[in-house]
Amino acid sequence: MEEKKKSNLIGKILKSIIILILIVILILAGTVLYKANKYPDKVPDIFGVKPFIVSSGSMETSIYTGDLVLVKIVDPNTLKPNDIIAFRNEENTVTTHRIIEVVNENGEVKFKTKGDNNNSEDSSLVDNEKIEGIYFKRFPRCWQFFIVFTTANGVDSHHINYISNWLNMDLYTRQN
Fold first, then answer.
1. Catalytically annotated residue among 16, 56, 58, 164
2. How many domains does the chain have?
3. How many CA atoms lie within 13 A of 54 on its CB side?
C-alpha cells in the first residue's frame, strides 16, 4: 500500500514538472509571437537567443530537417571560418550555414557560406547586417511540438490533441 502511495506521489511530481515546463515554453512562445507581430521585419529573440525550425537538409549531418536550432546574437566581427551562422538570404528567409571564408570586400567584412550537405558554396556573400546570430544548440525533431506556434491558425484541435496525448502518456502506461 505504501509503495502505491510513493508511486502516485512520484507520478504527481513528474506531471507537475512537465506542466511547469510547458507553461514556461508557452510563455516564451507567447513572447516570440508578440515580438514577431510588433516587429514583423525582425526575427524575434528571447534574451538575445533566436529559435529557428530547420526546413531543409543543407546542413545534414550536423543539423537535420525539423530540428529546432538556437542562435545567439553576436558581433559579426567575432565570426570566423567554421562557425555556423543564421542569416537572411536573397529571398529574405533565414538560412543556417557554415562560414567557409571571411572576405574583405572594399574594407567591408563579408562571409562566404556553404551548407555542409551542399556541393557548392552559397551564390552570394553575407553582409554583417544580414546575420541573425551564431548557432549554439540543436533540439532534434522539435518541429512536431513547436509547429503549434508557427502555423497561421495557431493552436487548433490537432495541436491540442497532440499536447494532451503527450501529457497523458504516463497515465496510459501506469494503467497497463
1. 56
2. 1
3. 28
What is the mean pLDDT of the segment spanning 160-164? Answer: 57
Q: Residues 3, 9, 12, 17: is their CA dihedral positive or negative?
A: negative
**6-55 pLDDT, tens per residue?**
778 888 898 889 999 989 888 887 887 888 888 877 788 888 998 888 88
56 is catalytic: yes
Contact between 50 and 136 under an 8 Å Cβ cutoff? The reply is no
Cell reading at 157: 484541435
Among 84, 92, 46, CA closest to 63: 84
78 found inside a domain = no
Higher pLDDT, 40 or 145: 40
